[in-house]
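Input sequence (211 aa), recorded before submission:
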Amino acid sequence: MSQSVMLFEKLRDDIIVGRFPPGARLPQQQIAKRYEVSKVLTVAAFARLEAAGLVESAIGEGVRVRTIDREMLEEAYIFREAIEAQAIREACDHASDREVAELRGLAAQMDAAEEQEAIRIDQEFHLKIAKMSRCQRLVKELKQLHLLQMFVSQGRCLRFRFLARRPPFSHMHLVEPIEKRDPLAAEEQMRSHIQTARKNGIQAFLESRSA
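Predicted structure, token format:
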């Protein structure tokens, strides 16, 4: 692993857990000194963080941790729906019986889990569907969205959880059309699932802002 990737991962983790809260400036010189790296590596790490949607930069203002707002959440859900709708369609064509059985097991765990554990299993569940699509680009993009999800839900300065309000139907409804190899039904179920999560996530965000 290159030094720039290692620095990116350290900064990413520090942002996600809230050591650098939304809106915090990340002065290049101070970051380089803090992590004992060169300015060149810092610039490369900043570029990766910006691509991941965790920071933003502006001429004359430098780099700062991205501020969470409704537009950011709306965009994340829109992108997620597009990615996961295609992923589940492809999974219907490419998933093995063993993979579908494993997905069913995750769905059962998810439906019985407490909130914190449910968040982890939910990510694993959706990432497995993406992997079953056999499209690495879909997997990569979903992992990036999971980073944003962790940023929103786990930062110490935040007062709401991205997945706190779980969809009102079982995750088994996403497994069944894959078992039947029915891509149209699978896509319909996934879009409904994400749209419900979007409605609940935005509502939770707005409530946290007015609290």
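Checked by second reader. The longest strand covers residues 55-58.
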